[in-house]
Write a structure and sequence with these properties.
heterotrimer; A: about 260 residues; alpha/beta; Rossmann fold; 11 helices; about 35% helix; globular; C: about 290 residues; mainly alpha; MetI-like fold
Amino acid sequence: MENIEDTGREPILKLNSVSVSYVAGKNAVNEVSANIYPNTITGIMGPSGCGKSTLLRAINRMHDLYPNVKTTGEIFLKGKNVLQMNPMEVRRLAGMVFQQPNPFPTMSIYDNVLAGYSLNGIRLSKKEKDDIVEQSLISVALWDEVKEVMSKRGSFLSGGQQQRLCIARTLALMPEVLLMDEPTSALDPISTNKIEELLLDLKKKYTILIVTHNMSQAARISDNSMFMYLGDLIEYGNTRQMFTKPKNKKTEEYLTGVFG
Amino acid sequence: MKDKLFKLLLFVASASVLLLTAGIIYALIGGASQAFGEYGFWGFITNSEWDPRSATEEYGALSFIVGTLFTAFFALLICLLFSLPVALFNGEYFKGTKISSFVGSIVGLLAGIPSIVYGLWGFYMLRPLTIELGINAQGFGIFTASIVLAIMIIPYASSLSSEFLSMVPNNLKEGAYSLGATRIEVIQHISLPVAGSGIVASYILALGRALGETMAVTMLIGNTNNIPKGLADTGNTMASIIANQFGESDGIKLSSLIAIGLLLFIITAIINLIAKLIVKHMSRA
Amino acid sequence: MTERKQTSISYRNGKNKLIYILVCTLSFLSMLPLFFIIWEVISKGYKNFNLQLFTEVTPSSMDAMLSRANNGPIPGGILNGITGSILIVGVAILLTIPLGLLIGIYLSENSQKRFAKLVSYLTDLLQGIPSIVIGIIAYAWVVKPFGGYSALAGSVALTIMMLPMVVRSTEETLKMLPRSYKEAGLALGSSYINVVFKILIPSGFGGIFTGILLSISRVMGETAPLMLTALGATIVNWNVMHPTSAMPLLIWDFYNDPNLVDLIWSTSLLLLIIIFLLNWLAKIVARKWKI
């Protein structure tokens, strides 16, 4: 199943037989195992309902919010089992960007970037705050566009800018891993393009998992790709190799558009 | 043809609402004119004398305005302590669950109990308590009346605020959780601010109800015509003085009571308008 | 991540748990008054809750006093209050339903017009008027011109209170019906009146009826406006132009009379039963007719 180049580095994220179920007896994610290496972009693709978002959300313990969801298996993030850690700690190590841009409407752009700190009760000096905001906005290429209007609410920004603001907000906490749940689905092609370029730049410092329903996006930016179908991890490997010579028949059918 | 007549009928029916309102305002102003003419508008509302004895007849609304505001605001404070948790319970913590609809129904039933029954309960159950706590020798007064008033407005405040809380998009809350926040932090920093103006509007509406409440207050406030200065004082509200004295009054006394009714009408209308504007401003944002 | 000065996770978790417990506790406490009140009314009211409550009129103060002196039960019942409530609320319903329906229909069809917005605003205004002020109005409009207290005056007051609720629920219900109902009806060549009364209202019956039931349950317990309008009576009265009693008015009378005061609980019990029954009925209707 795996044909990742083993560069001799330790995987930053290890999934061991991870299963998630919403309804007793029926697994939405079924015994998925995979190793994710640092500074890579891993695309997770598959048809609707295959469990890709569910898998992603298991990593940062989002399922804790919904009491009827059960997660089993092990997820090791930098050596520690995420499922046994305090969820708040997990979420500082693995940040998430959602499909629908969600800047907090009652906060200014400045405060939105720092939201991770204020929510966690971390006190910073004014200089620290200014630095973090500037760094984060620069790294998402939004700094020049908003530096004059930082005290304004974020709602007047375009969809693409809002999403970049949300990425900046996540980056401000300096997580190790970025979990992106269809981050460009709600955006126009130009914004999508900008964000894809951003991700290629960000992978120098972060490890990125990106769920996408758009296989060409996976082809464009990911180093490795996972293909999921009905909860199972069908194939996981180097993107170029998977797209040109898929090892599994189902993967080939998906890639050639036999099913959507 | 019949349709045209029918549509006209609909229009006329709706216009009757205008007539009704105009009639109400006209009747109140007409009835109050004698009192305002005699004492002047300012004079009337700043006068704390209420003396029905024919030799020294003199009427002023101040004591009752103070009594009304005092009880209503104190009731609002107490109500806040209980209705906000209920709103959080139903709109956040247990949103959509069976227990939440149970709690919501029970609290909602409080709204169905008639004011006079609240008055009876307050008289027989709370009054002895007030006496025991040493707050007032006979158990009447601002304290007792406000507590019952608070219980009466809890359902209004909590059901509306819980609706606004439940309308906070999941998307925003998940964003905060994903940054590592705890539940109360998400509530504090996201849910409450976003639902904020709606919650404020709910409490303003609850205040409006408290200002106009009659029977329960009448039975518990002690029926004295002084300006109440503390929780232990008795007094009267605008609604209770009308209820108590309307029966056999005429002449300038009747007019004074109607004038108080007019003041009550204006105050509640303004309060409700403010709440409405807040909600409208919210939905536009 | 560098260690910054921050509030510890255990503090935040602790605070989170504490507030959760606080919210649950205060919510639980908020439910208690209902049980206290119901318990009080039931435990003190069941003694006098018997057949004669429904069949006899209120005793005079004298009779009650004599009976108490002999340690006998309180004579009489609240028949005059029951029939009075039926009369006053009944007339109010007759006045409210046609008017409320028509206004609700108008508002649901014309929500964009400025006139409709004005009517809508005024309807809300009416809903917020304190009940005692409405009593003053009904006094000025009916009691004074006709020279005396009457059931009609009481009905007028209650109508003003019920109208906004019926208008709102009719309007909201009709607005929620799919556009296609009205269009399909008209496309079949039906007149507008027929579409309204044969298609729209029946389709929205659940919501409309619920609104009516709730408005009735609200005014059943109103005392203040009736004090200024219907005044009360010790006999059964069906004449709409005469002073009439009502259950809440009787409670007030009993409360003020040391000889009759024991009757307040059984009367309250009956009143609560009726109100809760109406509410429960409204819930059932709403559920059954869900669009």
